[in-house]
């Protein structure tokens, strides 16, 4: 038969798991906005940034089927396989992604379709 100390240990474990699930749910609901900072080209690579603007250009890469969009002068790199919403020139968009440098130019790398929000 389980003694009081065993019951107490199980209660602590169950309580800890519930707390972790609550934290995970809260972070999931908040999305990338919770960890993003406004885009600044002076920030180091790897920072999670947010940027809003107007889609000015959209093109596909020559190889790999990736998409590159110009969002009010800031390049968005959308890798093949990201389930991005259908973008059109003139769309108002907020993008969350990782800041990166490619071929000497700053870009925001999109990790998931949910990181692109059409307005």
pLDDT average, as an integer?
92
Secondary structure tally, helices:
1
Task: Provide the gyration radius in Å.
Answer: 20 Å
Give the neighbour order of strands across the main sheet: 2-3-4-6-5
Write out the CATH superfamily name of the largest domain: Nucleic acid-binding proteins
Structural class: alpha+beta
Q: Give the N-to-C terminal Cα separation.
A: 60 Å
Note the run of SSEs as H and E: HEEEEEEE
Give the amount of beta strand, in percent.
35-45%
Q: What's the architecture of the largest domain, going by CATH?
A: Beta Barrel
Which CATH class of the largest domain? Mainly Beta
CATH topology of the largest domain: OB fold (Dihydrolipoamide Acetyltransferase, E2P)
- The number of distinct β-strands equals 7
Helix content percent band? 10-25%
Stretches where pLDDT is under 50 for at least 5 consecutive residues are: none
Number of domains: 2
Organism: Methanocalculus taiwanensis
Protein name: Nucleic acid binding OB-fold tRNA/helicase-type
